[in-house]
Amino acid sequence: MKRFHIALSVRDLDASIADYNARLGQAPSAVVRGKYAMWRTDLLNFSINQSPERAGQLRHIGFEDDAAHGFSSSPDVNGLEWEHFSAAEQDVRIMQVYGVPVCD
Question: Is residue 17 part of a domain?
Answer without folding.
Answer: yes
